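ESCALATION

Customer reports they have been waiting on this structure for their group meeting. Please prioritize. Original submission:
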Amino acid sequence: MTKGDNNIFKAVLKKYFRKEDVLLVPNILCYFRIILVVIFLVIYLLPENILPNPLGTTYIAIAILVTAAYTDFVDGFIARRFNQISNLGKVLDPIADKLLQFGTGLAILIRYHMFASIWVMFAVFLVKEIFMFFETLILTRRNKTFGQARWHGKVSSFILYAVIATLILAGPFILYSYPLNNPDTFVLAHYCFDGIATFGIIPMLFSWIAYFTLFFKVLKNGNDEVTFIKHTDGTTDVIENKDTIEDEPVIMVDENKEE
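Update from on-call: job pushed to the front of the queue and completed.
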């Protein structure tokens, strides 16, 4: 990465990570949601016989998941209602969401590793997020970002949450009704898990393709996140652009032009 690219990268990071935004209530709720991911994993993966009710840990894990989802709603409401919307929050919120999806998906994979469709669902999620991470990194170095979450990403996340919640709740009852050690019910259990997982896989694939297409569109036509203006006295001003909507015209500034 060249010195110019490094300056751009630092300027974009500075735009999204400010000290005064760290302790805003919506951002604190994002930190709390990330902590809940760890608590969920620990509780859900505890031995089933640790409580009198074998489904006790599952019910507690569901309560934690509902709490995490509720904080996702509350932080957005507080940010809008009390004018605490911040660039840091715009970064933290999707990170907290993805960590929650990763944690719950990993828990499902560990609990129901015998079903190939669960492996496929987790693999699609993981590869999609790895691709998006490197795409975001490339865009940031080019002074651009994806901007706000797109509708297909939100729909995909909502359906994935619904699928994970269904597997957490219905999984034990499916295995109870269709034991895997019974040849007559083995296939039925796989049909149930494969059908549920498929509902999560298809929207993720669609969103992945849509974001991959958007990546090249933003890379070519996206607005700059920050603009550098070099003055005749050698000083440079950094102007933070508020919007990164790729359909708007791009304003180019010549850094070498003297005023």
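Sent to customer with the following note: The two ends are 29 Å apart (CA to CA).
Escalation resolved.
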